[in-house]
Amino acid sequence: MTDNPFLELDRQIVGDIYTSAEMLETLGVLCDGYGSRFAGSPAEAGAANYMKGKLQAYGLPRVWLEPVRYLGWRRGNSAMDVLNPVPRSIPCITLPHSPPANLEAELLDLGDGAPQEFEARAADIAGKIVMVTSQVYPAGGRRWIHRNEKYGRALLAGAAGFIFVNHYPGYGPATGGIGPDDSAGGQALIPGFALSLEDGAYLGRLIRQNGILRLRLTSDDVCEPVTSYNVFAELPGRDPHAGVVMLGSHYDGHDIAQGAADPASGTVAVLEAARVLAQYVPPLPHTVRFALWGAEEIGLIGSTQYVEGHEAELDRLRFYLNMDMAGALDPKDIILNEWPPLAPIFEAYRAEMALQFGVGQSLSAHSDHFPFMLAGVPTGGIGSLSPSRDGRGYGHTKYDTFDKVDLRGLREAAALSARLALRMASAAQWPAQRRDAASVQAILDTPDYREEQELFRQVSRYYAGAT
Length: 467
Prior knowledge:
Elements: H1 7-17, H2 22-33, H3 42-57, E1 62-74, E2 78-84, E3 88-90, E4 93-94, E5 101-109, H4 115-120, H5 122-125, E6 129-133, H6 147-156, E7 161-165, E8 192-195, H7 197-210, E9 214-219, E10 222-235, E11 244-250, H8 260-280, E12 287-293, H9 301-309, E13 317-322, E14 333-336, H10 343-353, E15 359-361, H11 369-374, E16 379-383, H12 407-424, H13 437-444, H14 447-466
Parallel strand pairs: 5-6, 6-7, 7-8, 11-12, 11-13, 13-16, 14-15
Antiparallel strand pairs: 1-10, 2-3, 2-9, 4-8, 5-9, 10-12, 14-16
Helix pairs in contact: 1-8, 1-12, 2-8, 6-14, 8-12
């Protein structure tokens, strides 16, 4: 039997989490009370102050907000009209940070938008409106393809517009940001629209039947200065100069939905971990910090500004555990962002905690761990080592609502993160130190990540040249 030096604390933490309805009640307030909590909106600010009050009520001795100022986006009216061969209006929405549009052009259907599809039709893209699906593992592809990569390929190839078609039936259009990869936010360079599977399939049939299809895209969305907020709380360690363990999730959603699974299931799990650690755990050798990030969905802006503004403390960060939508993931594993020396530590924790979770190594550029990873901080997150290859499901649609999240998943995420934080903040030795820039770049230049990262570098240079 594996010895567990934290057995009594584990029992208190787990027992409280599994006999409390606190997380479900908080989730209800965030989703039904504050709605989408879209970045820079009054609802997002209201949610930030609500969570600040909750953390204070939980007894954390230090709770604060940090403003995040950037060029945000406000949805206006939008329309999509088939001009020929069959005049017809198509229900649509614009993608966040899409510029105002008044565009007429031919539509080019690139299927699921795999890199090889863009390469095969490269000569046909310029001046056209490119249409792709939201499928994240296109047929014949070897890796996950994000919406922003598809948009970036269309932009670099000279497309006049971009259409993102949900590949799930019955869910309507799926949203997602397309703005520049910049902590200041900003407007995308070509308009991006989203359609349901059913309407996208109709347009595809028209092209196949008639050989050519012309569309008119119009919109009056607005980019304007806004303020978001990062929310923080801390359990100070016994040594104020020792390291810091951070747990975090973003809390902002998209304006068309409540964002219950993504991200609020992770948000409430972070809050619950803060509650039980404050309730039962005495001061630990190292500080535990809790972060609720604003403005993630439209470019990781909250976490990126934090990393840029707190360079002096990054050397003290032992580990950042990202919990984006952790309460809705199944199974719940630990994914380290290419930190092999940490794998034995988490495997030992697994045995000590008498839990079954996988420990793996992977990296994605599309959540709040990434700015920390780029800065060399040891990072990882609660994720699934065997995720569905199909995609988000109802995520980023109007159907990501409170009823989609179950209490069991919330409890598992909160208990796992709280027990891991207890151990990480108690460990006398920690086998991971902050990487330098060359070491970070060496990871990004490995075959698993090189293609996507090079594409994003090209897009960044394109934006820099355009401005």
